From TrEMBL, chain A:
<keyword id="KW-0029">Amino-acid transport</keyword>
<keyword id="KW-0472">Membrane</keyword>
<feature type="transmembrane region" description="Helical">
    <location>
        <begin position="261"/>
        <end position="285"/>
    </location>
</feature>
<protein>
    <submittedName>
        <fullName>Branched-chain amino acid ABC transporter permease</fullName>
    </submittedName>
</protein>
<dbReference type="GO" id="GO:0015808">
    <property type="term" value="P:L-alanine transport"/>
</dbReference>
<feature type="transmembrane region" description="Helical">
    <location>
        <begin position="38"/>
        <end position="58"/>
    </location>
</feature>
<keyword id="KW-0812">Transmembrane</keyword>
<dbReference type="GO" id="GO:1903806">
    <property type="term" value="P:L-isoleucine import across plasma membrane"/>
</dbReference>
<keyword id="KW-0813">Transport</keyword>
From TrEMBL, chain B:
<dbReference type="InterPro" id="IPR028082">
    <property type="entry name" value="Peripla_BP_I"/>
</dbReference>
<feature type="domain" description="Leucine-binding protein">
    <location>
        <begin position="29"/>
        <end position="369"/>
    </location>
</feature>
<comment type="similarity">
    <text>Belongs to the leucine-binding protein family.</text>
</comment>
<dbReference type="InterPro" id="IPR051010">
    <property type="entry name" value="BCAA_transport"/>
</dbReference>
<dbReference type="InterPro" id="IPR000709">
    <property type="entry name" value="Leu_Ile_Val-bd"/>
</dbReference>
<dbReference type="InterPro" id="IPR028081">
    <property type="entry name" value="Leu-bd"/>
</dbReference>
<dbReference type="Pfam" id="PF13458">
    <property type="entry name" value="Peripla_BP_6"/>
</dbReference>
<keyword id="KW-0029">Amino-acid transport</keyword>
<feature type="signal peptide">
    <location>
        <begin position="1"/>
        <end position="25"/>
    </location>
</feature>
Amino acid sequence: MIEALLQALINGVIAGTILAVPALGFTAIFAVLNYPNFAIGALATVGAYAGWVGNTALGLPMVAALALAFAATAVAGLVVQWAAVKPLESAGALMMAIASLAAGLVLENALRFGFGNDLRGYDLPLLRDWRFGEFRVGPQQVQNFALALAAMGLLWAFLRYSRTGRAMRAVADNRDLALLRGVDPARVAAVTVAVGAGLAGMGGMLVGLDTSVDPLVGTRLVLSIFAAAVLGGLGSIPGAVAGAIAIGVAEEVAVLAFNPAYRLVVGFVVILAVLTLRPAGLFGARAS
Amino acid sequence: MIITTRRTALFAGASLLAAPGLVRAQGAPIRLGTLTPLTGAGGPYGPVMANCVKSVVSDVNAAGGVLGRQVAVVSEDDQTNPEAGVRAARKLIDVDRVAAIMGTWASAVTTAVAPLCWESKTFLATVSGADSITALPHSGWLIRTQPNTTLQGRKFGEYAVELGAKKVFFMAPQTPFTQSQLANMKPPIDRAGGSIELLIYDATKPSLRTEVDQVLRARPDLIVLGGYTPDTTVLLRDIFRAGFRGKLLAYAYSVNQQMLSSLPNDVTEGIYTLAPSPAEGSGGFDRVKRIVGNDNPDPYTCQIYDQINLILMAMAVGNDATGQGIRDNIRKVSQGGGDRVDNAVDGLRAIAAGKKVDYDGASGPCDFTDAGDITDCKFRYEQVRAGRQTLIRIA
């Protein structure tokens, strides 16, 4: 039983780390633009397809395909923002969230129209897991884990050291003060959406690498992404990472305790518990 | 000029009234609906199924229609999702006022849609397999061309025994047929001194590693995969990574060519599959091959081909183009002896000549019990070799 628990923990940390990438995108957009972008699932799907095209049609190696997934999804995110969300900005966060949900459905079906419903697999050999006594870890899992960590590291460096990253944090902390200091809100919003959507696309591709790509690959992640962001505190960058890892572990460990068919309950229970007991989440202050 | 115009109008009106009933009736076509999954897990099958129905109807219309009326097909998408299926069925029933709905694929969708059909006196023909469907209180408003899960489950159990399995694990998502599939697999395995266990997983989960670990801890020698294509793909990858060396047995509708081309060959090598077999070599099967343009049409397209042919002939034999007419007359054309026909154009001609017809279709003989189940069906046993399904036998 202990081995099963430890194995579930390993699986959960790896799944959570991958989940953290789109969760970071979701929470970054919330922090700066103050609305939950529910197109995040469809954007993750865009990334999965972009990476797949890069890898199979253009023959790109993984890191380059991941960069292509980021770039393509950043563009898709900006299109969603300008075409669907921005015109409803004055109607409030709820309308913006609904607009993003609708735009997500359009994106998902556009992909279905273009690529069909067929499952797509990356041009990668599937390797058997490495075994360490009773435990096992997959080479693909380890690679995805490393890529997810690298993406998060790059995001951290961008927010910490670049002028634009600092402007994003300033707007997230105190919008009015940032405006007084001469930060251009339109530019910061655009960069945030591009980076947030790009991260979602990278997350979609990482999940697609581990499984396969179809028009619903990102949509299946939405509840977990939202639960991770709520648990960590909507708008909190470290919170999204901690929340995603916690959700990843909880979903895997729950399999040992409950019927695995009830996995979705984990996400809902976490959202319900956090909103009831600590609405600001683990790390959030703004959300309260 | 005015007089001429008025005369013309009067003449036109009088001509319209005097026109034979046939001409006027052609203005109001008989409406039939297809409700197949164009998206979701059943997405690979639904579009082909809907096109097959349109092709049959187009041939019938070219030959003069049914009861002197043209037939119109309205196709909707159930998205392999009960909630979307109910919305689409409501549209077909309330807006399009179809006499029959054909082709519901997932058992959960059929279960949700069936009550709408019998309450509105719309006939429903389905390709879903769950036992519970024909046990619904449908009072004859439903038939299915797919063998039920009792039969399919027993075949899976017997085949697992034939493959030498002693310890079987059944991994499946929650569907209306999961429990009855397990219950019917169990007796043959028990009789052979083996055992079977069940793990139900969440079909939307991107990774099923922990679930696979749970199953492998029981050290099974055969795993039965009971899901649809997307989740079975995830499952197969995780089973391969975990290093499982035993046998795998699955539904042919999930381990299909689309899945085989998306996974490396070494992941799928050796998987055994089982599926209700279409009536290969029959006239109906050859017609479906021509309609879909390939030599290996899937069983669901063969079944919906049979459904549309039976429905068109039932309306003709009962001289009634409503759901009630189909319900009351479908068994008069599907069974009971008479001229053997495999398509509606020949059948309608025979019916017009006052002959009794007995339809034998692309999916099989298409004889139905009172509950709406088919009475006979063959199964197709295949194994994946080098990324392709290889036929072992049809029995």
